[in-house]
Amino acid sequence: MKTFMDENFLLRTQCAQKLYHDYAEGMPILDYHCHINPQEIAEDRQFTNITEVWLGGDHYKWRQMRSNGVDEYYITGDAPDREKFQKWAETLEKLIGNPLYHWSHLELKRYFGYQGYLNGETAEEVWQLCNAKLKTKEMSVRGLIRQSGVTLICTTDDPADSLVWHQKIKEDDTFDVQVLPAWRPDKAANLEASIFPDYIKQLGEVSGVKILTFQNLKEAIVTRMDYFNQRGCLVSDHGLDYVMCAPASEEEVETIFQKGLSGKSLTDLEIAKYKTAFMLFLGRQYHRLGWVMQLHYGCKRNNNSLQFSKLGPDTGFDCINNYTPADQLADFLNNLASTDELPKTILYSLNPNDNAAIGTIIGCFQDSSAAGKLQQGSAWWFNDNKTGMAEQMTSLANLGILSNFVGMLTDSRSFLSYTRHEYFRRILCGLIGGWVENGEYPYDEKALEKIIKGICYHNAVSYFGFDLK
């Protein structure tokens, strides 16, 4: 019987162990997509206790606590932090086979030096250990980032954001990790949302453009994109139900925009036509600026209407959607490619059944402007586990070039989540090491080192064009 999560955790073969320990383990981290708060980095927040770090905004954990019958009072309610931690510890011990069990214990090992395992009985011991360690300077937000080996972070930012915290970080020469904005214009895309008219007014005020027409909106967007670009932005991101392609005339789009601006109800087709026009416009702008376009799709959000009314979005009530039409995705990309305005693009579907479709679609639009110009993104959200990661990388290897993959992203609101990169790297090395041990790829150390280090770090640096000195 192997020791629980020892130094060769998930590394079943000798080749996998060598690939990880010699090549992957010491590589830095490039966090090109996350949801952490730049204000907390600028102010170098110091957490009071482990509940603040682990349960303050982690809907992954909240879902599992609800599944364990825990009352909402101990999840998002006003229960004391110690009691919330106890309920989480009692839930964690049941999560055999769940990635949260691995992630949580990797965090306890790497950041707190805890070698045991957390359950209801050890909760007090872990609580005391973690809280004592959190008082030290090395466990401030910046300390956590430094000790994790992070070289660059891209946050997720609305076009109306002032980016003031990014500027404060940039001007602070005591912190040498770059923190760059990433463009997330979902509020401008979702004209069916009740907040759309008010948001458009806000965007107009920030951009200095009075937005009365769709053309005005595009002018405001360009103004804000140039503002972001001047502050180092190289990445965009979109949260879509699916990637749609419903072309419409300029007159149709304008009529639809006016309906949305006035708060009138819209048909599904009208929404699709507007979003298609908006996304095609953005795609061409990304090409102009040299930005990478990330498309996250395949999620059905806010399914529990009662809980949504109480807690709002991003609180653990989303699921995988199986409506992710591959034909519309291909047509959308082709619309941009037909005028040679397709930017570098990363596709993430929440539905793992889309792996093969994505693998074949991206192959239709590769060209010499970049190795792996179109990427299948790392296994996302509900697929961010051992099985999901292995299946995504195997599919990409079968249908494309795994060696050009830009690798793992944190996609988290927690500053302890950088151990997910370790988890990913162990799975990567286990996968490739298994192929080598099985005689499916030669034991060519030079080639293997380049592949592993590329996927762990170097490919992303080159792909996004970050200036890392």
Write a short abstract of this structure.
With 469 residues, the chain is of the alpha/beta class.
List the helices and strands and how they pair.
Elements: H1 14-24, E1 29-31, H2 38-42, H3 50-55, H4 59-67, H5 81-92, H6 99-112, H7 123-134, H8 141-147, E2 150-154, H9 164-171, E3 178-180, H10 186-189, H11 196-207, H12 214-230, E4 235-240, H13 250-261, H14 268-289, E5 292-297, E6 299-300, H15 305-311, E7 319-320, H16 326-337, E8 345-349, H17 355-363, E9 374-376, H18 386-399, H19 419-437, H20 445-464
Parallel strand pairs: 1-2, 2-3, 4-5, 5-8, 8-9
Antiparallel strand pairs: 6-7
Helix pairs in contact: 1-19, 1-20, 11-12, 12-14, 13-14, 17-18, 18-19
Please characterize this protein's 3D structure:
The chain has 469 residues and is α/β, with parallel strands linked by helices. Helix content is 49%, strand content 7%. The chain has helices at residues 14-24, 38-42, 50-55, 59-67, 81-92, 99-112, 123-134, 141-147, 164-171, 186-189, 196-207, 214-230, 250-261, 268-289, 305-311, 326-337, 355-363, 386-399, 419-437, 445-464; strands at 29-31, 150-154, 178-180, 235-240, 292-297, 299-300, 319-320, 345-349, 374-376. It is globular, with a radius of gyration of 23 Å. The relative contact order is 0.14.
